[in-house]
Design a protein that fits this description.
455 residues, alpha+beta, globular, binds S-adenosyl-L-homocysteine, binds zinc ion
């Protein structure tokens, strides 16, 4: 996206940023320890209000990164120098290279000497034990444990946007089987450490398993377990490779294997909003893939973007070629979002893809069927609506058609003559309001949308 046209059309799409709008990645933006900062502006009723400013792309909580600069602010040489030093000092204590060397040494240690500090989230070498003697440590770290770092590491959950929600085994296996059945060989895993781990461990165990994965993630703890060809420290909100040109080149090479013909990108970003920033990074990764050969014609790099269904319109705005699959992605550490058949609430998380929907075969035994009119697999309760001429349910329940709204709506909704749209029976009528950006319902703003809360 060019800097110029960002602002005009997009002021107003405050993505749950509490009256803030993301303008995007601007050329010449200042940097914080997480790479180039993003440009934001305060908005009120869809209009820009006040000065534009830069803030950290990765952290939404000021406690995690308090970078702030007005767009038109003059920054003195001294402050610039101090900032550069600050950014240097706020990089991880070991480099990726050092972590790879440490790992090589670690695996040579006998089991009783293999310790992992839970407090520092770090593999320890014997000389370091003493420094961590007050810390909770795990001992006898097995090779199997080293091959499943997502089980060994605590999922990050303190921060709003950096919370890690790990795939349930069933969903991870489903994704991998799908990738195999579709004939892909290279998986660019962007923020999907568990999928990466499943691929890596199969590749090391099964001789005829020919799929490779490269993990791009901001969680640097993973650099303790993977080489520079398997993991790049990457920020998906500003397309920033912390490892510089070498890491970028690793990614480029990975995308260009076998002419890039069997590459798919899979990503499961944090939901905190910032779809615009994600989309622009994913487009940059797609462009990187496209540099391969003219042979791709006008094709796009195949992609699975895993995200909640209520972001459908938002994703399609940036990727019109995408469609949303009915498959409900399950997570291990999401108590509320287990699969519907277990009697719990259903997961709102879906797969968005630019592949032909009919190719995405969903498991019948988990309650999906093929709709021959829509030419895609849908939830078995998702009824084909004759009037809309599609299977309209987004949440897996059977939706009903409202003739006044001229569309299908959730089963729990009723047409409200006051609001002139369908809503929950006990909603508060708010005629003037445009409705929530995420779910479209009146009465609340995006930041307090009930469908967004994950706890
Ligand atoms: N379901 C996935 C994990 C998704 S959680 C799995 O099981 O593999 C979101 C992931 O995105 C986490 O791994 C987190 O570390 C990563 N992430 C969060 N913010 C990021 C950023 N700014 N850039 C890159 N990765 C990020
Ligand atoms: Zn420690
Ligand atoms: Zn249908
Ligand atoms: Zn309908
Ligand atoms: Zn209605």
């Amino acid at each position: 996206e060019g800097g110029g046209n960002m602002a005009a059309s997009d002021a107003g799409d405050s993505e749950g940023l509490g009256g803030l709008s993301l303008l995007g990645l601007a050329p010449g933006a200042p940097s914080c320890p997480h790479g180039p900062a993003l440009l934001f502006v305060k908005t009120s009723q869809g209009k820009e209000e006040g000065r534009r400013f830069y803030a950290c792309s990765a952290c939404r909580d000021r406690k995690d990164c308090n970078f702030f600069q007005w767009e038109d602010e003059k920054v003195s040489e001294t402050r610039l120098a101090a900032r550069e030093e600050y950014n240097r000092n706020h990089q991880p204590s070991f480099t990726h290279r050092q972590n790879v060397e440490r790992y090589k040494y670690f695996v040579l240690l006998p089991l009783p000497k293999r310790k992992f500090c839970q407090e520092c989230q770090q593999l320890l070498l014997p000389a370091e034990w003493e420094k961590h003697s007050d810390h909770q440590c795990l001992c006898d770290i097995s090779t199997a444990q080293l091959k499943s770092p997502s089980q060994l590491l605590f999922p990050l959950e303190n921060k709003k946007t950096n919370a890690q929600y790990l795939f349930a085994d069933r969903s991870c296996q489903f994704l991998l089987d799908l990738i195999i059945d579709l004939g892909f060989r290279q998986v660019l895993s962007v923020g999907t450490p568990r999928l990466h781990e499943m691929i890596q461990s199969k590749a090391s165990q099964e001789e005829d398993f020919s799929i490779r994965s490269l993990l791009l993630d901001i969680d640097f703890r993973y650099s303790q377990f993977y080489t520079e060809d398997e993991f790049c420290h990457y920020n998906m909100f500003n397309h920033y490779f912390f490892g510089g040109e070498a890491a970028r080149e690793t990614c480029r090479k990975f995308l260009h294997q076998d002419n890039g013909e069997r590459v798919i990108m899979v990503t499961d970003p944090p939901f905190g909003g910032l779809v615009r920033a994600l989309a622009s990074s994913f487009k940059a990764l797609m462009a990187m893939w496209k540099e391969t050969e003219e042979a791709h014609n006008n094709q796009e790099m195949p992609m699975f973007w895993i995200f909640p269904y209520f972001f459908e319109a938002r994703i399609l705005e940036f990727f019109p070629s995408f469609s949303m699959m009915d498959y409900q992605v399950d997570y291990d550490n999401h108590a509320l979002y287990k699969h519907g058949k277990t009697g719990r609430r259903q997961s709102p998380v879906r797969i968005f893809t630019n592949l032909t929907p009919s190719m995405i075969v969903l498991p019948v035994e988990e309650g999906y069927r093929f709709c021959s009119i829509c030419q895609r697999y849908v939830s078995s309760d998702n009824q084909h609506c004759e009037i809309c001429n599609s299977c309209t349910s987004k949440d897996g329940r059977r939706w009903k058609h409202c003739v006044l709204c001229k569309k299908c709506v959730k089963p729990s909704w009723f047409h409200c003559n006051n609001c002139n749209c369908c809503a929950l029976q006990n909603h508060t009528c708010e005629k003037s309001d445009a409705g929530c950006f995420v779910c479209g319902r009146p009465g609340h703003k995006r930041s307090t949308c009930p469908s967004l809360s994950r706890t």
